[in-house]
Structure formats: structure tokens, C-alpha cells
Amino acid sequence: MKYRRIKGTKDILPTESWKWQFIEKKISETLESSGYKEIRTPIFEVTQLFTRGIGEETDVVSKEMYTFLDKGSKSLTLRPELTAPVIRAYIENNLNQINPVNKLYYIGSLFRQERPQKGRLRQFNQFGLEIIGSPNPEADAEVIRIMYDLFSSLGITDMNIKINSIGSRESRKDYLQVLEKSLKPSFNNLCPTCQKRFYKNILRIFDCKNSECQKILDEYAPAIVDHLNEEDTEHFETVKKLLNFTNTPYTIEKKMVRGLDYYTRTTFEITSSLLGSQDAICGGGRYDHLVEDLDGSKTPAVGVACGMERLIMVLDELSVFKETKKSPLFCVTLGDKAIEKVFKLITDLKELGIPAEMDLMRRSIKAQMRQAGKNNAHWVAIIGENEIEKNILVLKNMVKKEQIEISLENAPAEIAKIISLK
Fold first, then answer.
1. Three-state secondary-structure class, residue 142
2. What is this structure's pTM?
3. What is the side-by-side strand order in the sheet with 264-271?
4. How many structural domains compose the chain?
5. 152 and 37 in one domain?
6. Could you tell me the residue range of the domain that residue 374 belongs to?
7. At 35, which CATH number?
8. In terms of domains, do 95 and 237 share one?
9. Residues with pLDDT less than 50, the chain
10. From residue 26, how far is each of 17, 19, 145, 147, 216 by CA, in Å?
11. 113-165 tens-digit pLDDT
12. pLDDT for res 90
């Protein structure tokens, strides 16, 4: 039997993994410079964390979760998103007692059983950030702006920030009645899924991808942003003011509610035409009740998540990646004594901060030199029986095609000095 990776998963090979390392380093440096601290949570949680936190009528919970029973018959789920696990960790570890406002970020794998397509896998990776504790609009604006700055620093100029407000739960009570009344005459023309949502969670109709349902929404559905109470309106206006003050470009997207039930007030996405029809790079918003819904104290919060695969696709389109890893010193050996000398040499060089490696197949000198070329090694150290007799090694510059002899006794220090000068 030939084993293959599971549909919707991907092997990240050495030819590509350095891109992930580059992105992860950039994310960590950017967020930590703004006061965010990394948090890591388990890849599976009790199922109720997601059904209660995300919402049972969302596509994520109703269609996409990987759920199973453990040996104790407890229902567990591979995490389909990371905000609920982060909030669980926040509550369980009493992070509110450490700081009134916690600024956290994460990078990790998620799992959703959906149809694989470009930039969308069943095991995928996200990074995200959460500000837990602040009810104020400047927290919303900070989350949006920091993502804009991060993407800009990576060379992405083709992006559109779409923002909306879906109001507080108080605003939505009245709005949902207006929405139901407006869509009731068109009920029979809605798709079966939206007919079900009409009675269970009517706001989820905005998530529908059916073109006929979208036409009905365009023609008959009132915009939730036009039905906010005074406090919610003031909050959204301040978010927009802060973005304007910092020349952060955005557009109002009145139908955007995001796909998770915990959102309140500000919602947003950043999109790029470089991704085609599935154009969202990241999305997020405010969720002022999730901590309380998961049995914590009443705590406002706002956050955002970004798909790593989709971000890498955009950066590939822009030819941003340039592999900058150091080419190691490659050591060519001939004979058992030479192997002993080189093994010690490599150990000493690494202690001096000089990357080095040796051939592990005991091949011919010609084959080892070919390998050095494949590795893009700028320098090659050659040690054979003749060199040992003379107590030297030959250091060859593969770019300039020059070589010199170095005493074996002082080789580590001499090589370090020569390579650092060149």
C-alpha cells in the first residue's frame, strides 16, 4: 500500500518551509513590538466550547468540525478556530488578574472539513491577535491598523479594508424583527438553508453564497449599520475617525456580518484581488460577550485572524520571497582520519557561529564537490590523507575559484576570520 496525505492537507517541504519561517518571524517581531504576547493552546478541546462559543447554526459548527469521542466517551473537537480556545485559556488561567487588558497573539493549525480549494485546506494555519479587556473603539482601530501595517511592511499594496458594525445585542433585537419582516415576503425564494436560518438565526442569511439569496438581500434587507442605537453608532463613528486620522483606507460593507455568532459591533475584513474570487486575507471584529458566554466574567474583546496559506499566496504573487539563508561551509573528506578531523572541525565552527556540514555518505571527492554545488556552498574545506600528513586543510572559495591552505591546528579560528571578512 502506498500511503498518501489526507485530502485537504499539505506537506510543507524544505523548499517552502523557509517562507513560513520568514512570515512567522515577521509576525512575532511586529506584534511583540506593539505589546502582544504569544499564547499556545491545545489542538483539541471539548466540543461544547465551540458549539456554545461559535454558535450551533454557523457553518463551522453545523457542517465543518472534526468531532470524535475519546475513550471516556467525552466529545472532543479538533479546533476549527482559535478565539474560543484563547478565551478558554484566558478564563482558566485567570489572565484578567495579571493585566486589566491582555494583548495576545497566536500562530497555529486549525481543522475544518470543507471542500478543499485554492487557499482553503482542511488542515490550515492561522495567526491572529486578541485584545481582551478593552470596550473602547481605539482597540478596534488598533487591531485593524496593525494588520494594515503588517501587510504593508510585507509589500502588499493591493488591499481593501472593509468594515461594518453589526451592533450590540441590544441593537440587534430590534433590527432582527425589521429584517424578518422585510424578508418574509421572499421566504419561498430563499434557498433551503436560508429558510432554516430564517427561523433559527436569521442574521446568518447574510453568509449565504447563493446568488438568488444575495439578490433578495440586496433588494429587501435593511442594513444593520442603519439600525444601531446611539451608543453603538458613536462607537462605530469613533472607529472610523481613528482610521481617518491615521490615513487608513477603508470602505463600508453593509452586508458583512462575519461567519461566527460571537461578533458584536465592529466587523472587518482585509481583501486582495490577488487571491481571485476568494479574496479575504484576514477578518475579525469585536466580541463583547464571548468571555461571559463561556462562564467568565463580563469582559469585552476584539480580535482578528489571518490564513497563513492565503497570505503566502499573495506574497508569492508579489515575488516578495527571496531566500536569504546562509550557505554553509561544506566539508569534503577522504578517509577515516579525515572524517574524525572534520567532525571536530564542524563542532568547533558551530561554536563560533559558522554554519557547516559534511558529507554523510562517504562518497568520492568528485561526488562531494557536486553536493557542495547543489547546496550553494560559498566555501568548501577539503581534508584527505595528504592534507592530514601536511597538517593542513584546503579552503576553497567556490565563487572566486580561489583556494588557500590553512593549518589544521588553527583551522576553526582562521576559517571564521576568513569567512567573516569575505
1. helix
2. 0.85
3. 37-38, 102-111, 123-132, 301-307, 280-286, 264-271, 160-165, 251-252
4. 3
5. yes
6. 329-413
7. 3.30.930.10
8. yes
9. 422
10. 14, 11, 16, 12, 43
11. 988 877 678 999 999 999 999 999 999 999 999 999 999 999 888 889 999 99
12. 97
